[in-house]
Amino acid sequence: MISGVKRPLGISVISILVVLAAVAMLLRTLQVHVAGLSGVGRLCVVVAFTVIAIGLWTRHNGARIFLFFLLLCDALSSLVALFLYALRQSHYRLAGFLVLQFCIATLLMWYLQRASLRRAFGGVSAWPTAVKTLVLTIFTVLLAFPFYWMAIAAFKQNIDLYNAENNPFIFNLKPTLDHIRLLFGETGFVRWLANTALVGGIVVAITLLLAVPAAYALARLTGRWGERLGIAIFLTYLVPPTLLFIPLSRVVAVLGLQDTIWSLVLVDPSITIPFSIWLLMGFFKSIPKELEDAAMVDGLSRFGAFIKMVIPISVSGILTVVIFTFTLVTQEFVYALTFISPESQQMVGVGIPIFLVRGDVYFWGALMAACLVASLPIAFLYNLFLNRFIAGFTVGAVKG
Amino acid sequence: MAVKSRIKSVGAAQSPLLGAAMFSPAVLYILLLIGAPFILAIYYAFSDARIGSTQLHYVGLENFRSIVQSPSFQKAWKNSVIFTICAQIIVLVCANILSIALEKPFRGRGLVRFLILLPWVAPVSLGTIGWKWILDSIYSVITWVLIWLGFVNKFSPPMWLGEDKLAMASVILVHCWRLIPFSTVILLAGRTAIPREIPEAASIDGAGFWRTLFQINLPIMTPILSVAVLFGTIFTFTDMTVVYILTNGGPYDSTQTLPNLAFTQGIQGSDLAAGAAVSVFLVPVLVVIAYFMLRVAHRTEVV
Fold first, then answer.
1. N or C: which end of chain B has fewer CB within 10 A?
2. For A59-86, how does the pLDDT look when each residue is reduced to its tens digit (9 = 90+)?
3. A319-358 burial string, b = 16+ CB within 10 Å, else e?
């Protein structure tokens, strides 16, 4: 492997010097921004950075990549400081220094680029751990941040929440359960949860009843054109609710289902059935035909073999469809918004954003608590079955 | 690979009759609740349907004429296109990076994956409400950080959802935030299917970085990349939840999109015909996507 290549001593010495230079420059930039770390603090930061850098350095070529990122940060931050601070406030000496720093950083990056970055980024070898950790940390923080934010807002006292001066990342006052109490006691939240669970349950039943036999038929009984039909059904999954909601609102009104959850029971399977059939088709195809043959030799009919042999061994596939359908019903927004207006008949996904706002007043604490309570369990369930959904989404572009 | 076995055993012979009986309920349902409304939507676009009246008259291209001339619509289709393209580019870059980083197993991968996937698996409307709080005009955490860093004047904070450009950027940001996890897992599935030996062999044969990237890695990844982009395009272009909750098209239609406009005119304005006419403009995009989706499906089938 590449990481096993021995580095000549000279390069190591130069590289360590480069690391130290980078650390120094980064600190300088930090100082420009924060303006005035105390002497001890500065020393601590220098020591910490050096230890991290040298520590990483001993681990294969991870350090070089880490260094590259340091330099990149340095170059970018000096650019930002140049345009947002130095030039605006006409600190021309500082501006000159920043330009110089940027040039040095770029030169160093170019030097490093020649060494081993090419291989590291070339897709030949996997990325070193340091880079992965860095990338993963950044993305995880960015993607999960709104949920952290919901959690913190849900437990903050209102005086703390609505004070633009306070540090918003921490609890400045004691955490409180007021918002949760308001949510469960004085709003329709529990009702919405119950509605969602009820609609979800019925839609799951309808979906299974229609999709399981259809998928089996298309996968096994109808040969080549069954597969074509399967793809056609899959394509109907692409027809979005935002195209159908206008005619469907008329249909729902004509049937007298307006403003009741039964309108959703009728319409929601149209989102879940096509994709469920597609998922299950893939699943049934992976079951060896010999099992049914054996069952039929034992005297079962074709349909009997399907009920008694195929369904019991497909439980995990069917469970996937159950979870998928249920999460889609909770995620659905457009139909619920269009068909249902009274608060008591709402679903979670619409009730929270529409009815937790009175006039122009947002109950942010309760809102955030509601979002968190409603989304985490669904997220958890979905996560368990993720790989199977993905197998459906890749349309067979990935084999295996 | 995908070579179908043509040998039919006696027992597992195909039985089209039973098959038809088993799939016809589902197909009937799909025809009634997707096919019929689809045609109805197109028909409404040529009629004068309104909420509250049951009469329908054919009015020809009247709806389209009035819609195409309205400034809201012109803004809406431009925005829909801009949002979709910008979001796809950003998502593709980020998802690629993220999927490379997640490829190999490591300790805590399950937790990291759960956190990364949260935006996709949590209900859209709820995640968007979270963003609405983050982008609040007074208590925005982003503003707070910018003030703390000294980049922004405390007395004229940016109105994230109240200024044209910022509002558009916010909508794109939320779309990206939601789609990155989805594209990442799709690309991840594609990556794990690439045989390791091919790029390694290429590097031994002396192929450089760019050559490996363009002539080996990208061609192998193309089907899976296109799947991610096609789904992403559909999810962004036809989505109305994000815009409806975040800005409801405002300020002054600067973030209006086709689906949201269809809702505003068709349901809130009770002019079903106008709404249908707006939403019919989604159809060409859907057709194009469906065409490419079929190509992906067929190519992989033939391999």
1. N
2. 555 566 666 777 777 777 777 777 766 6
3. ebbbbbbbbbbbbbbbbbbbbbeeeebbbbbbbbbbbbee
Contact B224 A397 (CB under 8 A): yes
For residues A219-251, one letter each, b for 16 or more C-beta atoms within 10 angstroms of the residue's C-beta and e for the rest, the string is: bbbbeeebbebbbebbbbbbbbbbbbbbbbbbb
The A residues from 158 to 187 touching B (CB cutoff 8 Å) are: 161-162, 164, 167-169
Cα gap A168→A161, rounded to integer Å: 8
Q: Is B213 within 8 Å of A136 when comparing Cβ atoms?
A: no
Counting residues of chain B whose pLDDT is more than 90, the rounded percentage is 7
The DSSP-derived string for A239-304 is S-HHHHHHHHHHHHHHTT-TTSTHHHHHHTHHHHHHHHHHHHHHHHHTS-HHHHHHHHHTT--HHH
Token pair listed for B102: 């997640």
Q: Say whether A395 and B297 touch across the interface (CB within 8 A).
A: yes
B266 CB-side CA count, 13 A = 34
pLDDT digits 0-9 by tens, B260-284: 998 888 888 888 888 888 888 888 8
Name the least confident of A164-168, A256-260, B82-86, B98-102. Answer: A164-168
Q: Is the pLDDT of residue B178 over 80?
A: yes
Reported as a single tens digit per residue, the pLDDT across B1-11 is 344 444 444 44
Which residue in the set B11, B27, B213 is minimally distant from A297, CB to CB?
B11
In angstroms, what CA-CA distances link A3 with A117, A119, A136, B242?
12, 10, 21, 46
Over 50: is that where the pLDDT of A1 sits? no
DSSP category for residue B47: B
Q: Which residues of B touch A274 (CB under 8 A)?
A: 30, 34
Per the rule left: phi > 0, alpha: psi between -120 and 50, beta: everything else, A35 is left
**Any chain B CB within 8 A of the CB of A197?**
no
Nearest to B231 among A296, A353, A393 (CB): A393
Residue A243 has pLDDT above 60, yes or no: yes
Which chain A residues touch B35 with a CB distance below 8 Å? Answer: 236
The predicted structure's pLDDT at residue A4: 40
Answer whether B26 sits within 8 Å of A211, measured CB to CB: yes
Helix (H) / strand (E) containing A80: helix A62-81
Quote the minimal CA–CA distance from B75 to chain A in Å: 18
For the cut 60, the answer to whether the pLDDT of residue A316 exceeds it is yes
In chain A, what residues touch B303 (CB-CB under 8 Å)?
A: 399
pLDDT value at residue B269 = 82
Distance CA B169, CA A139 (A): 19
Residue A181 has pLDDT above 50, yes or no: yes
Is-contact A220 B253, C-beta < 8 A? no
